[in-house]
Amino acid sequence: MNELFDDFKSIVVNNTPLIDVRAPVEFKKGSFLHAANLPIMNDEERHDIGICYKNNGNAKALELGHQLVRGDIKEKRVQAWLDFMDSNPDALLYCFRGGQRSKIAQSWMQEKGRKIVRLKGGYKAFRGYLLNELEHFNQQFKPIILGGRTGSGKTIELKKMQNAIDLEGLANHRGSSFGQKITPQTSQINFENNLAYRLIQKREEGLKTLVFEDEGKHIGTVFMPDSFIPVMSKAPLVILETPIDKRIEITLDEYVVKAQEVYESAGFTDAFKVWQESIENAMYRIKKRLGNQKYSEVCMLFKNALEEQKRNSSFDGYKEWVAYLLQNYYDPMYDYQIQKRSKQVVFKGSAEEIKEYIERVI
């Protein structure tokens, strides 16, 4: 049995589970949605076999591989694949190029009476397919950009739209100076792969107009694909207008209430202190743009809010701090950027008005 599969579109559309038998170091650089890293070799074994291959050729490297992965080690790794197949009977198998590692894994599973199909061309071929989808983005979709000041609720509204793609969510970043999260950002490769997944799925739903939040070339440490930048920079821009009191409420919930909950659930010994330090570090990063006086003022407001929360467990003290940040840091910066792109703006309105406008034009 040596079955191969190369209908990559069906993998994306069906969210097919995948077994990635590459070494952990390879998996960390980039993988696919719904893929589990169940390696046939660990990093050290892969390193040793690679040296052997370079010095002595394929036959000797293959021989060393079988020496390193045998007995209990082999049984445990095969059992991990079988356990995954028990929960995901439609799973497919791949290594880097669809060569020896996945072929050996396939044969070992067959010895246990379990058939599994492997990807033709492996990771490299599937990755190439996804990159090609990104490259032809402008030929398949018409983008609309959703803008608005910080705290206007853009992400909240995007999540309500069937034809929207949340780029910040894919990047695992909140897109601001306070946008860092506890969990690391998605790698560049994973960001591209996950974005391609979303595009393919939206296309198969019959959607041709997609809504994206207003982003720059970078979202934290990841950057937009080259094919996106010229298209997005000229796309029509709709501006979500939200009253300042609502913006304060949304920002307070994100930066303070939910953020503290995340730090607590992460199991830090002093979660409140760790969260406090993360905010103080974020404020220090914007010190130069704020200037010394405003930096001192915003730090004092934050200190007062901390003390109030400690005294009576209230978040109300943070409202003044959030308002100061919005009006003295975020708003001037955003308004300046929007002024430079005024020709792109095609509509401004409330959340409901934005929804009605987009429904009319798609």
Automatic annotation (TrEMBL):
Domain annotation Rhodanese: ranges: 12-135
GO biological process: tRNA wobble uridine modification
Sequence intervals crossing the membrane: none
GO molecular-function term, one example from the UniProt record: tRNA 2-selenouridine synthase activity
Pfam families (UniProt xref): AAA_SelU, Rhodanese
Entry-linked Gene3D superfamilies: Rhodanese-like domain
Keywords of the record: Selenium
Xref: PANTHER family: TRNA 2-SELENOURIDINE SYNTHASE (PTHR30401)
Name by which UniProt lists this protein: tRNA 2-selenouridine(34) synthase MnmH
Name of encoding gene: mnmH
